[in-house]
Amino acid sequence: MKKFFIIACSITCALTSFAQEDKECLTYTSNNSDAYEYTYRPDGQVLCRRHMTSGYPEVIDSLYYNAEGQNIEKVAFQEYNGLPYMVSKVQYTYYDNGLLATRDNYNTYNGPLEHSAHIVYEYDNQGRMKQQSQYWARDLENPFDIIKYSYNYYGYLETVEEYKPDNWDETVFALSSKIVYTYDYLGQCLNAKSYYSDSFGSYPVDVNEFYYDYYGNIEKIQVTDPNGNIRTSLKYQYDTTCPASNIIYPKTNEFDVLGGHPVKHKRTSEAFYEMKNGELSLTYETAYDYRLLNEQIPDAIRPVSTLAELNLCHQGNSISAEGDGILTLTVVNAAGARIGYVSGLHPAFNLDSLPTGTYIVTVRHMDGNAHSEKILVK
After folding, report:
1. Dist CA 231 CA 218 (whole Å)
2. Tens digit of pLDDT for each residue in 163-175?
3. What is the DSSP letter of 58?
4. Exposure pattern of 229-257 as b/e (b: 16+ CB <10 Å)?
5. DSSP states of 208-234 as a string?
6. What span, in angstroms and rounded, lies between the C-alpha atoms of 60 and 351?
7. Whole-model pTM?
C-alpha cells in the first residue's frame, strides 16, 4: 500500500527553468469587443490565456508542459449557465529533436470530450516545416487536408499550398488554395498573395501588403482585393526606446500575438481600419499592457474570492479534488514533469502507480484559481 504525507500546502509547482525577472511580458490586450489576459511560467512560457468577448462567456486556456519545457496539452474551459465546462483539449507530441510531431484535438458537443482530429507534422533536413497532414479521428488512414510548404534560395517561406481530396476518390488530392510570398533585399516580406483553385485553374483572392518602419518593425498590414482596392489596414505603434529583446510576447503552438512578423521594439498598440463608403474607417484600437515577469501570479490568472475553497482530499490510496464546478487535478514529479492529469466534478487520482518520491498535486478551477500541496509517496 502506498503511503503519502503532506509536506506543504498552497505552494507553487516547481519549475526547472531560470526566471527572467528583468524582462517585461505582455499581460493584457483589449479593444471595444475583445480582451486577452496572459500569465506566464517563470521561464517565460505561457501558463494561461483568458479570453473575454463582449456578449459571450469567458474562455480560459490552461497550458501544461513536460520536464523539457514542451507544451504537451492545452485545455479550454468556458462558462455556460453559470457553470464551468471543459469545452476542448489539444495534446501534442514531439520528435526527438524537439520539433512538434503531432496534434490531437478533443471537443465536446454538449457531452464528454471526443477525439475529433489528428494532425501530423513533417520537416525537411533543415528543420523547416515541410508538410502537415490532417485526419478526422474517425479515419486516421486518409487525410482530409494536406498543407505543403516550400522555401526560396535564401531559406524564406515562399509558398503554402493546401490540397483536398477529390469528392469521388479520397486518395486523389487537388490544389484548393495557395499563398505566395515575396521579399525585398533585406529579407522583409513585402506581400503575400492568396489564390483559390478548382479544376479549371487558380484565381486571386486578396493580397496582404507589409510595411516596415526605419528599425524593421512591422508597421502596417494592408489587405487589398485582386484589383488593388484596399479592404482593411492594420497599423502598429512601438516604443522605440525599449528593444524587443527585453519583452516576452505570448507564443504557443496555438497562438502567436506577433503573428510571426518581425518586431524590434516594444509594441504599445494597434489600430484596425475597414473600407466603408470609400474611406478607411477605424473599427477598433487595441492597447497593450505589460508587467515584469516576476510580478506574475505563477499558477492563477485572477483568483476569485467568491469561489468555494478548493481542497485536496486523501482517502486510501487516492487523492481527489473538491470544489465548485469542473476541476482539474494535476500531479507533477520532482523534475517538473506531469505524470497525472484528471478532470471533472470530483476528479481523483490513484497513487498506486507512483514510485517512491516527492510530488506536487494541484487542483485548478476553470477560472485559474488553484491550490497545491506537496506529498511524499513511500
Report:
1. 19
2. 999 877 778 899 9
3. -
4. eeebbbbbbbeeeeebeebbbbebebeeb
5. EEEEE-TTS-EEEEEEE-TTS-EEEEE
6. 29
7. 0.73
